Fold this sequence. Notes:
The chain is 46% helix and 18% strand. It is of the alpha/beta class. It has 3 domains: 2-108, ATPase, nucleotide binding domain (Nucleotidyltransferase, domain 5, 2-Layer Sandwich), CATH 3.30.420; 111-293, 2-Layer Sandwich (Nucleotidyltransferase, domain 5), CATH 3.30.420; 313-500, Hypothetical protein af1432, CATH 1.10.3210. The strands form 3 sheets. The chain has a 6-stranded mixed beta sheet, sandwiched between helices. The model has no long low-confidence stretch (mean pLDDT 90).
Amino acid sequence: MNKLAVFQLDINDIKLTIYKYTPNGFFTIDEQIVEPIKLTQDMSRDGYIKPSRIQETIAILKNFRKIVDGQKIETHICYADPIIATARNQIAFLDEVYKTVSLYFKVLSYDEQIQALHSAVLYSFSMTRGVVINIADYTTQIIKFNRRIINNSVTLPFGMVNLLEQVEKLPMDKRMDKIEELVTKEVKKLDWLKSLDEESEFIGVGEVFEALGKLSRKSTHYPLDVAHNYEITTDSFKNVYNLIHALDLDKAKKLKGVSDLRADLLAIGIAISKVMFNEFVRHGVKVSTNSEMYGIVAKSLLGQTGEKPLLDILGYSLSSINEFYPTNVNADSNYAVAVILYKQLKVLHRLTRPYVKVLRIAASLCMAGKRIGYENYIKNNFPVILNCGIYGATHREIVLAAFVAASQKVDDFSLSEWVRYKDLVNEEDIDAVKKLAVIIKMATMLNVTNANSVKDISCDILGDTVILKTEVERDATLEISQAMSCASDFRKVFGKNLQIL
């Protein structure tokens, strides 16, 4: 297992992120440490980063370097926020860092940051076209893309901090109204946002959207505490906006448990995002917890180019999970057999195509509960799948897959747990979950020896009996015997007797 250390120099903090990665292109965060620092504080007076800030930065980086050297990590990526390029002594500052800590920091250009944000979306969402919105301290970026191509992009010269400086003497409600007026004037100049495709999706990156998502989930009593790919609908955004608009800043400088941002800065960010909702966002914005760092690391470790794109985000995500947490060594074979059973039993289950993605997740992670322990691992599949960070699937699909993987014994299906997720699932899904659970269990049993003995299956339905005929490459007596243990559940769910030959 190899490791990569990423040093990120931002204006408000310095971040060390250590990734584990494999030669075949899978990677995951192993450790992350964040140290606050106000690097550009007071820089607006004369344009210089102060010597005290430089020494504070170097002291933090020395400690980070000790961690990296202690783990014998030789591969580094070091990059700095584009705003640092505005410092008049940026070259002297970065030279001092290099001489003292032997870390060479590249200051990203805004174009490079846009490319990295685009890559982060490509590698963590399954969508063909969309618009990325990134609200930062001093800039706001909007990126329109179609598949792997950026069609239009802009870096607007305002963000939470510099807009707050313009309106901080106004009361809260007046501040937000003034910000909307200023930002709307600039956004209306972007003609390419007026002709967005109906299929375009909207992705919000950064702390503003993560905080918005958390507030939205709280206001709607959303059952799943997962930030990535959560959709802030237009209605829930209005509720959050009204809450912040009426906030008394004298009583709360932070919204506890929501964000490290000061409430006054968050209010500015939300005012900026309201313009986006007013001007071009249609139904909602999906939250991305992956910013430019994820895009930079993905491009570096995957080595993907336009000629060899990573198209199957869900497949890559599931394979990555099983690579680093190998509870299901036969995941691909389990899914292959599950798909065969799904197709052969289609006349019985009558499920629609969207359930295939649910089947795929459940088949790949049907033993994920073993991370906790073997005993009761099937029940433990549920919390593990909900929290293992699956990309390329909606929250609804992940929840359904968790229920499938946790209900491989049909009587273990928990209706009381189901009710908690009523806003994501419906009553018709209960039947689908039970059918898929039986299919998953049968597929797992037909792979119980990990020998990939079963290559194909055909199905005959004779009255009240379903006969599954297996095509095998080697003796599959044990596999068939184990699969027949599902006969009772098969009868409960499909209303037929089961025979496997």
